[in-house]
Amino acid sequence: YYFAGLGEVLAAALPGTAAGKPRLEYVPVDRQALERFAENDARVGRLARRLLGKGSIGDTTLKNQPDLAPLVRRWLDEGLIASRHKQVGGQKKLLGYRLSSGLEEGKVSGDIRKLQPGVIYPASEMAATFGLSAYRLTKLCKENIIEKVHGEPTAVEAADFRVRHELPKLDLLDQQRRALDEIIPAIMKHQFAPFLLFGVTGSGKTLVYCHAAKEALTAERSVLVLVPEIALSGLLLSSFAAFFGDRVAVIHSGLTVPQRMAVREKIASGEIGVVIGPRSALFSPMKNLGLIVVDEEHDPSYKQDDPAPRYHGRDAAVMLAKTCSCPVILGSASPSVESYYNAATGRYRLLTLDRRPQSGYRMPQIITLDMKSEKISGECSFLSYRLKKETETHIASGGQVIYYLNRRGFSPRLKCRDCGEVPVCPDCGVTLAYHRSGNLLKCHFCDRVEPAPQKCGQCGGSDFIALGTGTQRVEENLSRLFEDIRAERIDSDKTARKSGRLILSEFAEDKFDLLVGTQMVTKGLDIPNVTLVGVLAADIGLEMPDFRAAEKTYARLLQVAGRAGRGDREGTVMIQTYYGDHPVIRHLAQGDYLGFFEMVLEERRELQYPPFSRLINITLTSEDEKVLEKEALAFRIRLEEHLSGLSSRNSDMGPGAPQLAVGPGAPQLAVGSRKNFILLGPAPAPIYRLRGQYRRRLIIKCGSVGKIVARFRAWEEAEKGFGLPSKVRAIFDIDPVNMM
Question: What pTM did the predictor assign?
């Protein structure tokens, strides 16, 4: 479906080999026959005894003793032994230190006496609690007083989050019970049933997930839980850990290869009942799958952009549930347009949680601040006077505040005052963002970094101005705007130096009053003391050349607004915007998701975008712009030829394939009225140059994908590289999310 090769799929499905190459080894199969050979004194007996004694023999041994190779091949053919690949390399994690076994009591003195026998102490605790430096620890190990302990941490330890022990004791609300009454029968009947759990922020969707998972485990079936990003899913992880303890495994790309292999073995053996992870967790070797949960199903992170396979984790989860005959729960406070459309048309079953659980636990009040008329606070153009005063009021009354700005760095661009020149990335053609920390210019697309210029490359001037505002600039100005404020910043630049979980944990412990950040503050935060959320620039993203721009902006703003008022105090959200009358801002302020959905749906119906079609995005790239332009036009002609003859009766691999509308205002089809696709392009991609490659794009709007992809495969087999020269590469993205 996603037009990926077998090698690409295997690379995504199986743990990487970065820690070392697989080693070929041979293991006994017919032990009785080998025992008879072991009585022989010749090389036959030597090989049999080694296999039986050590349990395996590696190919390196055969290289050193080539006379054994013919015998090994013969035993392989006769079925006496078998070959397998074993992953090597990658040392196990140092869990900590403990008193050496059999240590004589007289040897223990000083702070060592405080160590409890058998207890493993992390190195950090050895230093902080017992005053044992790294040098002392090494010395004590050499003296055999303490010993290092290596191994794999449990899933809960590896995830590094606070377990919410109180969660299983919470009573379910009527709405949560009704949702479970729909889900549990499908679990018990081993029945495929897709559910859309549409719940406002803070409504208790996670509690529904956990109770549904409990029923699946009771029925001796396993559970798969997908999250957009592990680092920002602490609330959900801690909830599942509270319910299921060590039966929970967290699997993600941050684990070492041995760690990932160890977790996969536990999953395959059935020791692990609940697997939590990002989209790649779909490839976990689950046994007897009974439930799949996709949390924040609307999140674009579920779509793999590069490399192939460019699959969508949410959609693949639905297909996996269908294959395994189990229910799948798609949860969100702002469902994707496609998912809500599937619920509205009966393909998914809609479950609704429209209130927060505790009494008086109301949704936050949303106030729109029109920056065209709002007074600005001093020289800081990013902050209105009203938001400043509201911040002071909330902090003075003991509340905490979140500022959300979806733009990292100090400023999005640096400009020469003399000639107006703005430095751009030579590889991407986009402006370089200015980062005051380190006085650097960075490209946020290819990660190019260079020192900020001392002189303008155009006119030689040395007077520059930083235009616009990023999270660094906001953080730098907070001390001038507020007296005695404790503030912290969280974005990808900051978390490269300090753990994001540590920052969020300190904020939850009230170690600072105000947290300013990018999208990291929109997900998974459940801090009851946050009473005010300020959106500093709500318009970022609305002007992107992407038909999903409104949907993505609405979801981000709704999610960050939901961080306020999750305790016993009412929350307030203040949204700064220059487009106060924009439908996205208006529907958000009114809490009207259905009105927003209907508006977007009508726009997409008119333009034949999903859910009224499926999209295929074909991007052609080359370092040579002229060659690319010529080849893109020729590619279009050949593409039309290979797709000719497709009728509107094509079937799709997935349930409920969309149909292209016919009638007034419907776009003209590409090659005659009986074709079920519309072909657009080639045209320059919105980001026309990326990492040194020029980019041109073609888009196919179709009612179904299966037969079109089959034509692609036949074309690729007939013409290597689709007839394109080696300088030009074609990238096929089925159901794209990133349209840039």
Answer: 0.78
